[in-house]
Description:
Blueprint: H1 7-39
Amino acid sequence: MTMPRGLAPYMVDMVWAMLAGWVSACLLVANEIARGMRAGEIVPFVVG
């Protein structure tokens, strides 16, 4: 059984939106961590 013609672009758009949201969230968290480190609110820690 094949997929309806309109379903494939819809699925690609949904996956793209999910990936874009995930990347955006990761960049937001990284930005907040960097801001906190620059401001001295977060100090670097040594593991090991």
